[in-house]
Amino acid sequence: MQTMPFDDWVRAWFDHPENWDWVCDFPLLETEISPNATLAYTTQLFRYAGVLLAPYSDTQVGNGLNALIWEGDSPLTILQNKNLPRFECRACLKGIYRVYKEIFAVRCPEVSQKLGHVCFMWWDIFPLYDTVRPELNETVLTTLERTLALPHLACQEAALHGLGHWQSANPARVHGIIDTFLATKKVRRPELVSYAQAARAGRVL
Fold it and tell me: pTM of the full predicted structure?
């Protein structure tokens, strides 16, 4: 199987007009690329997101990330495959923190816009769930914990959203992360505190 070069793969996801309808045009992204290559390319993209996505506008980045992680059509459904090496899957999940630190925390306003929607909905549409591969849950939770520590409201809301979705299978761990967050001396907006309490109980949409 011939693999698309990494730079071409990145352009296939992000180099589109801002009015690109990725839902309708998704078949244009299909290419012969192995699961291992998909995992390696995505990990590289996440790990160096700030540099690799710098040439693209917020809308292009938002559209591309939406298309890449949207659960119904995402190539990252491969993360559900238990035959893929656990170490490589964990590396990919750890890289998501860099997307939050280098993209969302830098580009997203405190009130969500186009790119902010992807930021908030990431763990809602990402094609991995707490019951699919429990052996990856701790990596996800550590990534969410690190994201929650970023001094940026949109990133904190997104992390709480993800923690709420992982709460049912990992209540003690989620409670600990959120309780530590709420116990810090930093000033919190009342609505963020309320959302954190809802996430602690697994009540997020």
Answer: 0.93
